[in-house]
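User: quick one, sequence for these tokens?
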């Protein structure tokens, strides 16, 4: 009961605060920015992620398995068919799973490949009301029609979590390409199983690195071990919901902690981030977990939060429209109900500097054409919004 109550508080934002507790000294806190907000499209059913096509139309995922095509001028929403069946717990802010991320291949102009992540229904026989699933990443060719929609064709799964798990928590499954090459990073949650995050024979609780076809790069840190182990780029991860590169080529990740202890991590090749052995939060029943500073062999977060912000997405801003935000991390906050801005410094440190309140649980954030920032609200009736100075 304690675990359920604490989880509900974190997801609803009841335990949030406007103050972060950083791993490094905080830079002077700025006055909150007030960007101009315009509505692009409305009434999505639990949207999770979105991506921009070259013609500025926007692909939006809904957790029930719908992939929508949005006209940013009119707000019209078409359908993209061909998405595989997903495991979805229904319209609730507490359940997870369903259709997740969507990204374009770096060479989309040539190959029209779109990558999606989702919770794949399990094959084990269990009672009818049980949820058994695993996160997968698939790709397909996007074929658009003249009616504002289209289809994903020749859809192929290129990666799966190594275990089917009972329950619908902690899938992670964010997707990120490394620049213009074919290297693909995937965040894989621990599925609330704890120990697999430290197991070299499980890809749960890990950052995964693959080629665009799902094969394993030979320069991965554990490539010589073969199997699932070869996929692993970093381990000791809990519930990773955001990942991005900065302009110096550093890889950053944001993840939900337990009762307290949300983390902003600098991801390094072969590193271990300690979950569930260490955390700056506690278990939901109140049982303490040793802090990162008790186990220096594990990489500690650069910023952590207690109370939590319930992070749900991440970009490192690279545009010019918000001049003072370039190089900053912008974190979509469910509990924070807005964006959390984190300054990243050249000595591999970081600190929160600002909250941008938006009044709703924010599920995803992307940098759009011209440097505008787009966010999508969580839950039934979620809106896609555009932020400008």
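Assistant:
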């Amino acid at each position: 009961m304690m675990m359920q109550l604490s989880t509900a508080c974190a997801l609803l934002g009841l335990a949030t605060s406007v103050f972060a507790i950083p791993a490094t000294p905080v830079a002077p806190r700025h006055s909150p920015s007030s960007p101009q907000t315009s509505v692009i499209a409305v009434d999505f059913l639990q949207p999770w992620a979105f991506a921009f096509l070259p013609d500025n139309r926007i692909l939006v995922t809904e957790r029930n398995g719908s992939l929508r095509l949005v006209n940013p001028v009119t707000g019209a929403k078409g359908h993209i068919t061909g998405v595989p069946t997903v495991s979805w717990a229904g319209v609730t802010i507490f359940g997870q799973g369903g259709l997740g991320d969507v990204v374009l291949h770096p060479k989309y102009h040539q190959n029209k490949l779109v990558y999606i992540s989702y919770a794949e229904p399990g094959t084990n026989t269990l009672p009818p009301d049980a949820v058994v699933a695993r996160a997968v990443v698939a790709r397909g060719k996007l074929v658009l029609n003249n009616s504002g929609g289209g289809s994903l064709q020749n859809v192929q799964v290129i990666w799966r979590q190594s275990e089917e798990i009972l329950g619908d928590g902690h899938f992670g499954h964010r997707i990120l390409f490394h620049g213009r090459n074919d290297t693909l990073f995937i965040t894989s949650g621990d599925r609330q199983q704890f120990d697999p995050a430290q197991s070299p024979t499980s890809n749960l609780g890990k950052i995964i690195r693959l080629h665009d076809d799902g094969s394993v790069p030979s320069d991965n840190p554990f490539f010589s071990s073969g199997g699932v182990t070869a996929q692993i780029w970093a381990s000791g991860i809990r519930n990773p919901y955001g990942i991005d590169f900065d302009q110096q080529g550093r890889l950053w990740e944001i993840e939900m902690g337990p009762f307290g202890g949300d983390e902003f991590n600098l991801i390094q090749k072969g590193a271990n981030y300690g979950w569930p052995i260490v955390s700056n939060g506690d278990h939901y029943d109140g049982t303490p977990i040793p802090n990162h500073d008790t186990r220096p062999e594990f990489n500690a977060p650069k910023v952590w939060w207690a109370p939590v912000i319930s992070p749900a997405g991440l970009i490192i801003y690279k545009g010019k429209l918000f001049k003072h935000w370039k190089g900053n991390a912008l974190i979509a906050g469910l509990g924070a109900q807005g964006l959390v801005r984190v300054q990243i410094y050249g000595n591999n440190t970081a600190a929160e500097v600002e909250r941008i309140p938006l009044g709703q649980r924010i599920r995803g954030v992307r940098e759009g054409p011209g440097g505008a920032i787009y966010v999508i609200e969580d839950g039934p009736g979620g809106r896609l919004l555009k932020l400008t100075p």
